[in-house]
Write a structure and sequence with these properties.
This is Peptidase S33 tripeptidyl aminopeptidase-like C-terminal domain-containing protein. The structure is a single chain. By secondary structure, the protein is α/β, with parallel strands linked by helices. The chain has a domain of 69 residues. Helices cover 40% and strands 11% of the residues. The protein has 22 helices and 14 strands. Strands 3-4-5-7-6-8-9-12-13-14 form a ten-stranded mixed β-sheet, with helices on both faces. β1 and β2 form a beta hairpin. The N terminus is likely disordered.
């Protein structure tokens, strides 16, 4: 199919030939083609009026003329051959071949070693896709295959080399004529692994969609198994050592009266420390990673998805289909507005955030500008469930149907007491103390994934009784037990994406935003405490680690970025899903997409709390709507409101330990089962330290 690279990049060309990727072979092909075309057409080089030459005169030329013409062709051939060699020596598109061993496809490991001397895709290969193979641990689940796709690092400058995107695939099982191409996944973050999500949920999504798609999770630039990965400190272990004992390691402490002079000073001191740490991180990343750190934006990832689907052929001739949540909803909104409608199939976004806010305001202002509008409501939702469940299921309640205000009062008093007297924790993987900030952060975390609330509530009750070991373990891992070969530095991957996407500072044409100071951040935190979330405003920056972009190179800001518009007309309207109470992506953002996209989007609301449908309690209704959309393109009716199947303290009627592969394979019409399994697997995927 023909594909319009609308809003992508100009085709990289040598001699007018599209150059999709510079490798040893693909770099030579344009040069050879360039030379041969000019030799074959040399007789047309006579001048601007060559089209007026009688073709018969060419064939009636004398033998001498033919010899002369042949000699000129030889000279031309040598000229262009030398020029081609000069190009290759100058641009060195396959300099990496000097160190490439003679490997077969099976010799290329997954994930690719960070410091390998050879790339994840054989540079001698004309295909940008490495051989598919069964994924190793921890991705070896449900028959997931893994590979790499070579894409241009800079779609505007072919000489920059390549990025190697890690992909994981659950193969389509439907008949070939019923298949719909690829369904690309993004779990959010930025920083979440799409390959990991495919390992956790790919089989469920494949069953949900009747096997019509190759379900493909990909790790965006700088993340997971994709290379280069953001690696500023050398290892996850080294980065954790850098953060140890600092405000980077646990949520902020909050004075019982944050608006007092002492309370303001407590916040200012922590923001000042975090400000300095962000500067340190950014400078280390730029020194260690150089240009690689500057090509990890959302607009780059949209171009990668297009490349995977069309140039690499993962879409099998079909348009792009996509399912993403949280930050993945931002990526999905970029996707449908950067690409032409002809390139897009079915796009569903969940836990919807504002792409407009993301692209038009600096990161440190995102929280202040509306992210926490519904946070307090999600907290109260959890307290109501605790009250209804009673002390046997939720020990924070003193009796069944207790006034939630009393539960809240006890919790807030416990936090205030911990502020002045942290709890000693002599046991666990990393002994120490349990602070007020750590407990407050755990309560906030449970608003995002309410299925974790029963467990976290029981841990808080234990801490109230003097045992803070489980709660401290949420934030303080045993550093000695960490895998020294693990590289992920998720906060820094997120910074690479956010700082690329954000609006430049001090640009009078784009808001003229000033550099933030610790005093600014302190005041904004107090403003949010008053306006949106009086309990959790200081806790959220630990989880949403955005900022530090004033140290990002200004000359890199703007190129290739996408700032809208956000109202593309689609052939297939996108499906937008929002919860009634979402602590970080409020319902209003789902409505914002509808207001901008008009008839090209349809909103489905789920009457539950939590961050996204997958973060809330199971809802057969919501998964039925997603199934209908992805399988047949059917949209829910206008104003559709789905209910959840059960509360978070109610036991599931599905025993996760006894579900067989056969049961899952035959569950396409058992949406309650799929909904339960989806909720369980996502909770374990997103919060492995709790489950």
């Amino acid at each position: 199919m023909t594909h319009d690279h609308h809003q992508l990049a100009p085709s990289s060309k040598i001699g007018g030939v599209f150059l999709p990727g510079l490798t040893a072979l693909t770099a030579l092909h344009p040069v050879v083609d360039f030379v041969s075309r000019h030799i074959m057409n040399f007789r047309k080089f006579s001048g601007p009026h060559e089209e007026e030459v009688d073709e018969k005169l060419i064939f009636s030329e004398s033998r001498a003329q033919r010899r002369s013409s042949t000699w000129l062709r030889v000279v031309a051939f040598l000229f262009f051959l030398v020029a081609g060699v000069h190009f290759l020596q100058t641009h060195r598109p396959f300099a990496c071949l000097q160190h490439v061993p003679q490997l077969t496809g099976a010799d290329y490991p997954f994930p690719h070693p960070v410091n390998a001397t050879y790339p994840p895709v054989d540079p001698r290969s004309r295909s940008p896709v490495a051989p598919w193979r069964p994924c190793p641990a921890p991705y070896n689940r449900d028959g997931l295959d893994c590979s790499y796709v070579r894409v241009p690092k800079d779609y505007f400058n072919a000489s920059k080399g390549f990025t190697y995107v890690a992909v994981g695939r659950i193969r389509a099982t439907a008949k070939a004529e019923d298949q719909l191409g690829a369904l690309y996944l993004n779990p959010g973050g930025p920083g979440g692994s799409g390959v990991g999500l495919a390992a956790s949920l790919g089989k469920i999504l494949s069953v949900l969609t009747h096997g019509k798609y190759d379900v493909i999770g990909f790790d965006p630039r700088g993340i997971g198994a994709t290379r280069p990965i953001v690696d500023c400190f050398g290892s996850t272990y080294a980065y954790n050592l850098f953060k140890a004992g600092t405000v980077r390691e646990h949520p902020f402490e909050v004075h019982p009266d944050p608006f007092s002079e002492e309370g303001r000073e407590v916040l200012l001191r922590q923001w000042t420390e975090l400000h300095a740490m962000r500067e340190t991180e950014m400078k280390i990343c730029l020194e260690k990673m150089g240009d690689d750190f500057l090509h990890m934006g959302t607009s780059d990832v949209v171009r990668d998805i297009s490349y995977l689907n069309f140039e690499a052929g993962l879409g099998k001739g079909h348009p792009i289909n996509y399912w993403g949540g949280s930050y993945g909803s931002i990526l999905g909104t970029y996707l449908v507005n950067m690409l032409p409608a002809s390139s897009l199939g079915r796009v569903a976004i969940d836990g919807v955030s504002s792409a407009r806010l993301w692209s038009e305001t600096p990161p440190e202002r995102w929280i202040a500008n509306g992210w926490l509008v519904d946070t307090e409501e999600t907290y109260m939702w959890n307290l109501r469930e605790c009250s209804e469940a009673g002390p046997e299921a939720c020990p924070l309640a003193k009796k069944k149907n207790e006034d939630v205000a009393k539960i809240d009062e006890r919790l807030m008093k416990f936090l205030d007491d911990l502020y002045y007297e942290p709890l000693a924790v002599p046991g666990g993987p990393r002994p120490g103390v349990l602070t007020s900030g750590a407990v407050r952060g755990a309560i906030y975390a449970a608003t995002n994934v309410p299925s974790a609330w029963p467990r976290i509530a029981s841990w808080i009750a234990r801490a109230m009784d003097g045992d803070g070991t489980p709660l401290r373990g949420v934030y303080f891992p045993d550093l000695a037990s960490l895998d020294r070969n693990q590289v992920d530095q998720l906060e820094l991957s997120r910074a690479a994406v956010g700082c690329h996407d954000t609006v430049p500072y001090n640009d009078p044409n784009l808001g003229n935003w000033s550099y933030p100071t610790p005093k600014d951040m302190t005041q904004w935190t107090l403003d949010i405490l008053k306006k949106n979330s009086r309990r959790f405003a200081p806790s959220v920056p630990y989880f949403e680690t955005d900022g530090g972009c004033q140290w990002f190179p200004k000359d890199n800001q703007g190129r290739g970025r996408f700032y809208g518009p956000w109202n593309n007309t689609l052939n297939t309207p996108m499906l937008v899903i929002s919860n009634v109470a979402d602590p970080i992506t409020p319902r209003a953002y789902g409505q914002e997409v509808i207001d901008l996209m008009g008839a090209s989007a349809r909103l489905l609301t789920v009457n539950t709390s939590g961050h996204g449908t997958y973060g809330g309690a199971p809802s057969t209704c919501a998964w039925d709507a997603l199934q209908r959309y992805l399988v047949s393109g059917e949209l829910p009716e206008e104003g559709k409101m789905c209910q959840r199947d059960r509360g978070n303290f109610e036991k599931s009627n599905v025993d996760m330990l006894t579900i067989s592969d056969t049961a899952l394979d035959n569950a396409a019409h058992n949406l309650q089962l799929l909904s339960e399994v989806m909720t369980d697997r996502f909770a374990k995927f997103s919060m492995p330290h709790i489950f």
